[in-house]
Amino acid sequence: MPEVRGVAGVPDYDVVERSGRRGDALVVVPVLNEGERIQGQLARMGELRLGAHGADLAIADGGSTDGSLGEASLAAGDVRAVLVKRGPGALSAQLRMAIHWAMEQGYEHLVTVDGNGKDGVDGVLRVLEALRAGHDYVQGSRYVDGGVAVNTPASRHWAVKLVHAPLLSLGARHRFTDTTNGLRGWSVRALSDPRVAPLRDVFAAYNLHYYLTVRIPRLGYAACEVPATRAYPPKGQIPTKIRGPGAKLAIVRDAARAAAGRYDP
After folding, report:
1. pLDDT digit string, tens, across residues 6-30
2. How far apart are CA 109 and CA 86, in angstroms?
3. Can you give the pTM of this predicted structure?
4. How far is Cα 118 from Cα 121, in angstroms, rounded to an integer?
5. Which residues of 237-252 are buried (b: 16+ CB within 10 A; e: fewer)?
6. For the residues of 131-200, what is the DSSP string, one character each?
7. Does the structure show a pLDDT above 80 at 143?
8. Backbone angles phi, psi at 84, to 5 degrees
9. Please, which residues have CB within 8 angstroms of residue 73's CB and are 6 or more apart in sequence?
10. Number of C-beta neighbours around residue 22 at 10 A
11. What is the 3-state secondary structure (H, E, C) of 67-93?
12. pLDDT tens digit string along 47-86?
């Protein structure tokens, strides 16, 4: 099992490779104890046949302990590699790990899609198409033509519409409609720009996603949104790691900091 240790701005992580690189794009699913949700999602992603579209699939595991990433699930998704974070940090640290590995492996494009089953996986192909058409940042959106919002809680709908998306759009100087959607894509050339510099320890929770939404378009890179599906369960607990008023306030704070350029290198 290869280990990555001591790289500045990158959490320590292990890599379990199941196959070699086969395409120019890496699709990454960040997970942390997602149970049956990630197992079902990997089965759906296997049906996409990403390899036929020149893309490989990797898991960015934050340290799951629920046994959900067994060999059968990985095989169903045709997963190329599992990256297991050992260093500190939450979702942004998982993204830094994925960015580092994508760069090291020589990929040209990086796509992420949440691993909690809320994002329609077919949107991955639309993100890939937009990246290959020359865009450097692509945001999935349930609020553009062709997008689908299913059972979105009213509090989340209005928080995105009235606070989060306007804040980041203002900072980016580019209009976005769905800035909390987990489906996103970047060109590795933009991520490698020293004026972007995503591999920094300041990014721990969700702030790296918000920073990249602002910074890449602000530097003049091409950005766009593509239709996406975001579906919440009709009843029961919402699959999310964001719980409590403190966590929600932290998201607004981090979005405001990103919009104001506080994370710029």
Report:
1. 999 999 999 999 999 999 999 999 9
2. 25
3. 0.93
4. 9
5. eeeeeeeeeeeeeebe
6. HHTT-SEEEEESSSTT-EEES--HHHHHHIIIIIHHHHHHHHTS--S-TT-S-EEEEHHHHT-TTT----
7. yes
8. -115, 115
9. 38, 39, 42, 43
10. 13
11. CCCCHHHHHHCCEEEEEEECCCCCHHH
12. 999 999 999 999 999 999 999 999 999 999 999 999 999 9
Confidence check: pLDDT of 240 > 70: no
Given a contact cutoff of 8 angstroms between Cβ atoms, the answer to whether 55 and 85 are in contact is: no
- Residue keyed to tokens 């599906």: 229
- Local confidence band at 237 (pLDDT 50, 70, 90 cut-offs): low
Contact indicator for 77, 57 with CB cutoff of 8 Å: yes
Q: Report the alpha-carbon distance of residue 221 to residue 187 in Å, rounded.
A: 10
Q: To which residue do tokens 């590995």 refer? A: 101
Encoded amino acid at 85, one letter = K
Structure tokens at 78: 């045709």
- Bigger pLDDT: 238 vs 153: 153
Distance CA 27, CA 58 (A): 6
Question: How many whole angstroms separate alpha carbon 77 and alpha carbon 54?
Answer: 15
The tokens 């790691």 sit on which residue? 241
pLDDT tens-digit map of 202-216:
999 999 999 999 999
Backbone dihedral region for residue 143 (phi beyond 0: left; psi -120 to 50: alpha; all else: beta): alpha
